[in-house]
Amino acid sequence: MINPLKTGDTAPEFTLPDQDGEDISLTDFQGQRVLVYFYPKAMTPGCTLQACGLRDNMDEIKKLGVEVLGISTDKPEKLSRFVEKELLNFTLLSDEQHTVSELFGIWGEKTFMGKTYDGIHRISFLIGTDGKIEQVFDDFKTTNHHEIVLDYLNGK
Predict the structure, then answer these.
(1) Rounded mean pLDDT of the chain?
(2) In-domain check, residue 44
(3) What is the 3-class SS of 35-63, one letter each residue?
């Protein structure tokens, strides 16, 4: 069973390699709002839809003062191919050992096509300028994730 962090919790500090193998830390974004979105697997249909929705709305998201970090258990090389293939305009991080996913409480049992396995649950966290979780997004489809986030950011 997963136990995601909740609104008001302090976001755990982390450092992970990005799609270019560079270490990125949450502290790099101190004083900024950051959308940390967890997704199961790069280059799969749902994750591609979700990433492209964010990509296509990145100008508005950035205008609202929010940085975006996508996290999956894929290796940096695969993330790099995903960024190139889909022309993604935000940072993807590799959590191969799923330590950060566990810190956020979203690593756990999943069922897909009758199989049960452990994996990342598709949940996003908006971290406020104070380092606390401002909002948890856990009720969306891959096709409307960006709309749900933007509606929240725009106060709708």
Answers:
(1) 96
(2) yes
(3) EEEECCCCCCHHHHHHHHHHHHCHHHHHH
Q: In the chain, at which residue ranges do the beta strands (DSSP E only) sit?
A: 15-17, 23-25, 33-38, 66-72, 91-94, 107-112, 115-120, 124-127, 133-137
For residue 66 the two structure tokens come to 């929010």
Please state the pTM of the whole predicted model. Answer: 0.96
Active site residue 47: yes
Report if residue 5 sits inside a domain.
no
User: From its phi and psi, is residue 142 left (phi > 0), alpha (psi between -120 and 50) or beta?
Assistant: alpha
Residue 23 inside a domain? The answer is yes
**Catalytic residue chosen out of the listed positions 47, 66, 150, 153:** 47
Residue 19: give its domain's CATH number.
3.40.30.10
**What sign for the dihedral angle of Cα 79, 80, 81, 87?**
positive
Q: How confident is the model at residue 49 (pLDDT cuts 50, 70, 90)?
A: very high
